[in-house]
Design goal:
It is built from 10 helices and 6 strands; from the N terminus they run H-E-H-E-H-E-H-H-E-H-E-E-H-H-H-H. The longest helix has 18 residues. 49% of the residues lie in helices and 12% in strands. A 6-stranded mixed sheet has the order 3-2-1-4-6-5, sandwiched between helices. It has one domain: 3-Layer(aba) Sandwich (Rossmann fold). The protein has 250 residues and is an alpha/beta fold. The mean pLDDT is 92.
Length: 250
């Protein structure tokens, strides 16, 4: 995927769900993976010409695992003139060594987001951007069906009233395959996730299951994505019929 295509899909999501208003200061949650680094490029590129002026900065929550290196990410942010902050935490030690969680992902995500929210707020940000892409939305919906018995997916825009912060997901129209292509084309400095649970989670199980379903039934993931757009999920902004019809062709 070329940068221009990435910017086009990103702007489509931002415009459709009114994610950015004039004067916003947006913290980009940088995990070190391909998705968040692609989001960094997307918002940095969009910032140059988007009609609503906004600022961005990058924040990484370091969970404390040995071998997690952010030096290359810092170099990238410096080259883009984007402020970058690394927040040192002992979340990994708490979850794996002290609590010895059997299912660590939920608590880890909660603690990681809490740290990110606090730093973003302290830096004067009013919004946080996550790098969730189109495939992530389908996987989340499928996980909700399988393990919770409900049709649900996180919203493109979520207001956190306790923190007075708004979470946005500008990559929701971008396929993971295109993110991978962009990462390879731009040689993004991905930092490997050193988490002991990486690759052995419910999400990884669902990802592989969906790959098999889509291989056996080509287009099934696209149909699932359209079901999310049409599903009247309570937390999602309501769109008019013309907009929904246009989105079906994405």
């Amino acid at each position: 995927m070329k940068l221009q295509q990435l910017l086009s899909f990103t702007r489509k999501a931002i415009d459709t769900y009114q994610m950015i208003q004039p004067g916003d200061k947006i913290a980009i949650g940088i995990s070190g993976g391909k998705d968040s680094l692609t989001l960094l490029y997307a918002l940095h590129g969009l910032k140059r010409f988007y009609p609503n002026p906004f600022e961005i900065e990058a924040i990484t929550v370091d969970l404390g695992f040995e071998g997690f290196d952010t030096s290359k990410i810092a170099e990238l942010c410096a080259s883009l003139d984007v402020p970058y902050t690394v927040v040192k935490t002992d979340i990994g030690q708490i979850i794996f060594d002290e609590r010895k969680e059997k299912n660590p992902c939920s608590l880890c995500a909660k603690m990681r987001k809490g740290s990110l929210n606090e730093v973003a707020k302290a830096h004067g940000c009013n919004k946080i951007a996550y790098g969730h892409h189109r495939d992530d939305l389908v996987e989340t919906m499928f996980m909700s069906l399988m393990f919770e018995g409900r049709f649900y997916c996180y919203s493109p825009v979520t207001y956190l009233d306790r923190m007075d912060l708004t979470v946005i997901r500008p990559l929701l129209f971008v396929y993971e395959a295109d993110v991978i292509g962009f990462k390879n084309k731009q040689n993004l400095p991905v930092s490997k996730n050193p988490c002991p649970a990486d690759g052995n989670t419910k999400r990884e199980y669902v990802k592989n299951l969906l790959k098999q379903l889509n291989s056996e039934n080509p287009g099934v993931m696209d149909k699932m994505f359209r079901a999310i757009l049409n599903g009247n999920i309570s937390s999602w902004p309501k769109l008019d019929s013309d907009t929904l019809e246009k989105l079906q062709r994405l």
